[in-house]
Amino acid sequence: MDDLRLWSRQEIGRMKLDLERLFDNFVADMGLPCCIHTSVKPYREGFIVRTVLPGVDAEHLRVIVDERRVTVEAEAVMEHGPHRTRRGISRTVSLPLPVDPDRVEAGFENEILEIKLPKRSPQGPRVIIPRAGRIAP
Length: 137
Prior knowledge:
It is built from 1 helix and 7 strands. It is an alpha+beta fold and 137 residues long. It has a 4-stranded antiparallel β-sheet, with no helix packed on it. The protein has a 3-stranded antiparallel β-sheet with strand order 3-4-5, with no helix packed on it.
């Protein structure tokens, strides 16, 4: 038991990438639309999420944002010779900090979706001054 040790973040990250690659290869071999490859990069005012969506048209794309998550839903069209297959694909990404859903911007060009997610403005404590008397139920 002396040789047991915790895995580092780098080792876990490498394992995650290896598993994603393995799954992507399996999905591609089955002729299904590939997984949604997504990156989250911080910038001064928030985060940029970039997603590669092969076979997806803008009209078959939907982005759902709440304070801590971004979900990309799409319908991909895959062509196999004379046959066309439509498959729904989805990916949800958790964000490290809350964002302001009302200020989110998104653009889609050349099969790349880019989502700009500004951080939510920090709100200080709220001061409440009680009134005299009971409050209504």
